Amino acid sequence: MGKAAVAYSGGADSTFLLKIAQEELAGGVLAVIVDSQVMPSGMVAEAIEQAERIGVDTAVVRMDIRTIPGLTENGRDRCYLCKRAMFQSILSLASARGYGTVLDGSHSGDRDEDRPGRAALKELGVRSPLAEAGLSKDDVRHFSMLMALPTAEKPAYPCLATRIPFNDPITLGKLRQVDEAERAVADLGIDVLRVRHYGSIARIEVLPMDMSKVLLSREILVSRLRELGFTYVDLDLQGYRAGSMGEAP
Predict the structure, then answer these.
(1) Closest C-alpha among 44, 42, 62, 53 to residue 8
(2) Which site among 36, 43, 168, 227 is 20 to 30 Å from 8 CA-CA?
(3) What distance in Å separates the CA atoms of residue 1 and residue 99, rounded to the nearest whole number?
(4) Please, which residues bridge with residue 57 across strands?
């Protein structure tokens, strides 16, 4: 590839990809980090620090979601619209800096029907080396552990917009509520979690083994989330599961 820019989030997949790219391309790698209102607080700073530890130069692209046509309306094409705008910005920066290829960390388990944003990557010519090599999420975690990468067991943490039901408009206020509510739950020592935003209701998803932590801190958690503007605080007894926002008809 010569020189490549890696769309970098600091998660397990993109960190593994970045490390391999750095080893293979001998300095011809740039980690591009997108900073927008849908990113959980602290994620950008953490990604920059991680990339620098690996020894890769970084660049930050700032994106205002309110400028992306149709995105805040939150239709089922939300992910496609966001990915397309994000990677157009990454491609523009990469080209200006002389990086001819842009890579992302999609793996073989990221199926098109589950990841609408992948259509945007294909349209824009973004390459996904992990998927091309047939590596699964389990493979990424296994080899990351062998390489002693600190992200080997890091939980997936997608953008905050995924906590808001489709067709419910995305606002900066809702994103802030979700971000701060999830930090309050994380402060209980819980790593895998989501706080789903249903207007006046906050629906908390954690792994079944962590439900006792939520219940033991029930009063503190309810008080904090009510301060954020929620009237009701619910614990989902099914527990955390990816894609639960798509369960409703």
Answers:
(1) 44
(2) 168
(3) 9
(4) 30
Q: Does the predicted TM-score (pTM) go above 0.70?
A: yes
Find where tokens 């639960």 sit: 244
- Please report how many Cα atoms fall inside a 13 Å half-sphere around the Cα of residue 105, on the Cβ side: 24
141-168 pLDDT tens trace: 999 999 999 999 999 888 999 999 999 9
Instruction: Check if the beta carbon of residue 92 is closer than 8 Å to that of residue 67.
Output: no
